[in-house]
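User: My advisor asked me to double-check a structure prediction for TBC1 domain family member 9B before group meeting. I don't want to rely on an old file, so could you generate it fresh from this sequence?
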Amino acid sequence: PAPSAPQPRPMWLGPEEVLLAGALWVTERANPFFLLQRRRGHGPARPGVRLLVGTLDVVLDSSARVAPYRILHQTQDSQVYWAVACGSSRKEITKHWEWLENNLLQTLSIFDNEEDITTFVKGKIHGIIAEENKNEQPQSEEDPGKFKEAELKMRKQFGMPEVEKLVNYYSCSYWKGRVPRQGWLYLTVNHLCFYSFLLGKEVTLVIQWVDVTQLEKNATLLFPECIKVSTRDSELYFSMFLNINETFKLMEQLANIAMRQLLDNESFLQDKSLPKPRRPLKNISALKRDLDARAKNECYRATFRLPKDECLDGHTDCTLWTPFNKMHIPGQMFVSNNYICFASRAEEACHLIIPLREVTIVEKADSSSVLPSPLSISTKSKMTFFFANLKDRDFLVQRISDFLQRTPSKKPCGIDREWKWNVADPSTSAVSVSPLAISPTSALGHRPISFCAGQVPTASQGLLKLFRRNSEELSGPKGAKEKMKEESWNIHFFEYGRGMCMYRTAKTRELVQKGIPENLRGELWLLFSGAWNEMVTHPGYYADLVEKSMGRYNLATEEIERDLHRSMPEHPAFQNELGIAALRRVLTAYAFRNPTIGYCQAMNIVTSVLLLYCNEEEAFWLLVALCERMLPDYYNTRVVGALVDQGIFEELTREYLPQLSEKMQDLGVISTISLSWFLTLFLSVMPFESAVVIVDCFFYEGIKFILQVSLAILDANMEKLLQCCDEGEAMTILGRYLDNVVNRQSVSPPIPHLHALLTSGDEPPLEIDIFELIKTSYEKFSNLKADDIEQMRFKQRLKVIQSLEDTAKKSVVRAVSGDIGFSMEELEELYVVFKAKYLMSCYWGNNRAAAARRDQSLPYLEQYRIDMEQFKELFISLTPWSCGAHTPVLAGRLFRLLDENRDSLINFKEFVTGMSGMYHGDLTEKLKVLYKLHLPPALNPEETESALEATSYFTEDVTTEGNATLLPLPLKEKGTSPQDYRYYLRMWAKEKESKKETIKDLPKMSQEQFIELCKTLYNMFSEDPVEQELYHAIATVASLLLRIGEVGKKFSNRPTRKSEDCKANSTQDPVSEEESPTSEQSQNSAVEQTPQADHEDKASIDAQPEKTQPENQTLGDGSGEGQGSPLQLLSDDETKDDMSMSSYSMVSTGSLQCEDIADDTVLVGCEGSSAAARYGSTIDTDWSISFEQILASMLTETALVNYFEKKVNILQKIKDQKKVERQFSSSSDYELSSVSG
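Assistant: Sure, here is a fresh prediction for TBC1 domain family member 9B from the sequence you gave:
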């Protein structure tokens, strides 16, 4: 019977018409657009009614059970209702009702037309249904599912190539003005795309992630929850998502990957290595899963400070027995390749990290009702950890044992040293090598040192222990206080464990806040930062690096040498060669480990402090942890990380100190202070003894602590800062305050602080106790959360990187604008196109060479470089000289001409120089570019057989050119010699020399090169409105120049070479058999007509004396090797008239369509003139022509002059180029505009 049928689940319905909304249904809730109804007979009703309704249901539809609740859509004047959702319980249907009220009600009130409202609601509901269905698994393995369909649709709709992968797609509305457009949002690896077709209107959006400047999820008056996507020139709003949080998180991840690409190619290449599934993608995108996994990995590594290559395998809920308070603490266990970690639910309760290299036994204990599914893990340090309430214990144990088998069993050398620092008696552990035992002139000085057999380059401990002056403090009350601190830590170690497997609790943080004792500082910094893990898993790594890097020089080592003596010069440890040598080795080793960062100022200050408390190897790994994990991107050339955290600091100031925020903004102080505070962790602005306590807390808490202390400092000085008139005054107030932050508990003798100069005036300054400052910062600002800071970092990173990119664009444009004809606006547009082409090669190129070739240490101008294929694509879309099928050939030649250092890449300046040559200047300048394109190096040896002979002309004359760099330069390997930057300085100096190239400096052109030039010109004119005139003009000029070359040959000193065994058609590039008969006839007629036309030539030359005279003089001056002016020396025998010209032009234009002008046709056409007929048909190697002769001949033809003098608008070409940028996918015939509809 019907009642036993399964209840339908709550669901959206593809809107169905309902004519009688009242029959058998009771309306429970209503608003102007929707009704929520309950089926009569459900809920509180009389038994008779229930029976009647049940019977009706069975009679009317015996196959299905009707859901007891439904939602209808209605409009005021319409009699028709539409069912949009149904559900089996009030609770279920209420969820749908609330979604409609929150997301649609306000929006629908905007529409004027009721039909539009219904169309919109139906479209929205269909979109939701499609989105819910996309996650259902397909029926069979062969069915690629809805996701694959969506990916194909996306490619076709937006013209994306195969390599562009869809990550996910969502149903939503895009707000165009005040009207929402319901459609689909496609998120791909590199683009955000939206498509909608509704009410007869189409909307298409395509935005590259690299162009996104801001992503925000917010609520406005118009729509409750929406995502705002900002680019440099538009703001886009999307709303009505089924799951807005998931969508926003994914958008953030994709934008973040794009920012990494702009910031640092190495990280981007790792990001780009998203999985390439072997089988077609199923409904759930593999990329989406991968991105989710990556986000979890990053969070896991950050929480437990694990190495960058650690991958989370899984996590599960459990409890951990904590012996120090005899409790089972609920939390989560995380398992990865090399670690088992635990984090309690209550943030402060307990954190635990167990490296698998320490684990000895993993065993399942007996379950009981008190302790279900317990698991005990024992370590080498005799600690045992009890976990319980594990859901899938057997599987977990199997995974852990799998990872344990992969963990190297034998101990790497150098890890035998457990934490055996005898704290109780510092005298025994203080000095294992006395300062006298290693004199500064010993092997430590400059020679690379072998680290084997326990030899340590400086000492087995930090420099502080070697250079501690006999201090009375050790025996006084401060010494006693220090002993008490050490004793507190010893008790803590006894209760909570020591080493990596220590239970980290609120008690640990309390002890850190009170200051770590000097003897324990190195050990605890290594533990809390996670540097210890990397050090013990890479034994000998640092020693090898030192050996490789010592004695090698590059820009980084020069900067290091310069800063060595500026690193804590006031400390005795760095007033001698021992400390300086240790600092040199650590910084140089790091520069070689990470050339992307190399060396950045501020690293020297931080490293010198690390060396005071740790040995060299430990200091090195702490530096790695700082630069690569704890302060990401801080120490690269653009200090991006510090700028990002500066933005966070500004945001927090607005939130916590609103009255001060505006004042600080006006004074511009935050940007000045935050960089110096954050980059050196206060070490450069506070007395050393106080700043080192900040470093203690930083290694335990991370950047969160630096931000909260910075807020506390501003808060303490608020009154004074509000009275300030300018930045200088505010800086002095803060400088004085920081100068007087003292550590009264320090046992080290005070080190004079460089900033003490600021403390002037009559009254003695007020001293601030560092521990009080830290305590205040926790009391007032401790509710900062690490997760929130990561979220803010993402938002700020978008802003910072995009503003840096804008700065880079401006500086590049300024740098190249001086001697290039484009306006600033045109240059900026060209830069955008150029950069986009480079970036496209990074993610759509088949190889990764493009991404690998960006070097952040180079000047901005050199950072983006494109190869020949990319240049050809840009050339084809931007050139004013379109040559049809010949255009790529011309592009290749121009590329070779511009690529002066022969590395097969050109930078932006070279690119715009090439473009400018075609767009700007007079006829002479443009012809000069065209002329050079038909000489080596632009002309390839393969393109003309005699190019090698022509090269001899080129190399003879190249020394007279202003641009001596055209000769191949030996490429230097980056980072091997100090010539790296000197080379650039020389290049710039050379550019500064304004040695103007004259037309006389251009080498002569051989006959073969000249024929190539003619071929280019024919192709160039093929689509011009006045192509007939141009063909006639170029035929005239080409014929004339061939004869001039012949005459010139007679006056050269070289004997002419006769070509003997040549037939009429045995030319280089002979006519193919498939050639059309028309063209063969025409060529023959041209050859036949030539002799009879000879006698009229003189008249044709004499007829235009006023035109040719001025050029004649120029030509006479410029001809070398004893040649006279060929034009003045022409005789009856050597000249032809316009009859032969016209018959020649008929060959080229009359009898052939422009696309039929094959390479060989044009060549034979050229040789069909009398010169070729008379002197034989092979290429004449003694024949040559100069640029001046070509120019003079061209000037006689108005059509040619007009063609080269006409102006072309490059901005229009750039606009067109952007439109079709993504249209090289053959699947799309759809014209795309960036924002259309």
